[in-house]
Write a structure and sequence with these properties.
Length: 322
């Protein structure tokens, strides 16, 4: 495993971390799945232990993941093993009677302060390395409120650093950097989600902002596991997130990179290596419900794509834009 610095923070992070969405196990609200299926407590322990053995020191979770159970399992396992890791968590999303997903967002001062305190209790620690707003603020009022929240969290030493998970909202990411109160941004970036993020990545590097890449495998579409006719299980959030048409498009795009595979590297490893080829990236956090996949993902830290291969990738992506 190779390591990088997380922007202007003093944190050293593994190039490949572990996204902990799956760790808490199956969660269904009113028949709507909020996770990727079932992961038992025993399997969750195996996943965490394997990640540590592979050199992963950065674990990204959230209070909404399995309604707090991801944090509980992670905290308990790390405490039992007496390991020092980078705990990253997120707050601001809560269960609600909404469709298609039964969640809502609250980035208010009072709610986020209560979020981090509850997260610390579940994680069984007094301070985390990074607290993130789980959704980007929608207006100037929420931005100012978030700045106030982050100032208080640091003053009270609840978290060493603070950031925002912006997903695909790259323009707002640049705006948040300009405000000057974020240490990190978490965002989507992958072989199939790439172009709008290139400018933001360079801007973040210029301003020494730590970049955490979520979904480097494009929510599994770059894992090489699925064909165009794949149907996700009823307890998998992707069942309601993507239409058949979108699934087919994503698989078709992913398949165009199959030529880069060899007997020594899989499509998922190539996808992670692509993300890490951008030096603006501090760490990527693929999720996993399989020990085998955690090992494979970790080994991608040592894969270097050649300039010729990166050029071929860009040529494929450019065709999509045209």
């Amino acid at each position: 495993m190779n390591y990088r610095q997380l922007g202007k923070t003093k944190l050293t992070v593994s190039e490949v971390g572990l996204g902990c969405w799956e760790l808490g196990g199956e969660t269904i609200i009113n028949g709507i799945p909020l996770t990727y299926g079932e992961v038992t407590k025993n399997i969750a322990s195996q996943l965490i232990q394997t990640a540590l053995k592979m050199g992963i020191n950065t674990f990204d979770t959230a209070d909404i993941y399995s309604l707090g159970n991801s944090e509980k399992r992670l905290g308990a396992e790390i405490k039992k093993l007496k390991k020092k890791i980078n705990f990253f968590t997120k707050g601001g999303i809560f269960p609600a009677q909404n469709t298609p997903l039964p969640v809502d967002v609250d980035l208010s001062y009072e709610y986020l302060i209560s979020c981090i305190k509850r997260s610390l209790t579940r994680l069984q620690i007094d301070q985390i390395e990074l607290f993130q707003a789980h959704k980007p603020p929608k207006n100037e009022k929420e931005i100012k409120e978030l700045e106030k929240v982050f100032t208080k969290i640091k003053e009270d030493e609840l978290s060493l650093s603070c950031g925002v998970s912006i997903g695909l909202d790259y323009e707002l990411g640049k705006k948040l950097i300009d405000y000057g109160f974020v240490d990190t941004l978490q965002m989507y970036f992958s072989l199939i989600d790439y172009k709008p993020s290139i400018e933001l990545l360079a801007y973040a590097k210029k301003n020494n902002i730590g970049i955490i890449i979520s979904e480097p495998l494009g929510q599994g579409f770059l894992s090489g596991k699925y064909d165009e006719n794949h149907k996700f299980a009823n307890n998998d959030i992707r069942k309601i997130s993507y239409s058949k048409k979108i699934i087919q498009k994503k698989i078709q795009q992913a398949n165009q990179f199959n030529f880069l595979q060899t007997k020594d590297r899989s499509l998922s490893q190539i996808a992670i290596a692509y993300v890490l080829s951008n030096k603006s990236v501090s760490t990527c956090i693929p999720g996993s419900s399989s020990v085998k996949h955690i090992i494979s993902n970790s080994l991608a830290s040592d894969i270097i794509l050649s300039s010729s291969e990166l050029k071929q990738i860009r040529e494929i992506q450019d065709k999509w834009d045209n």
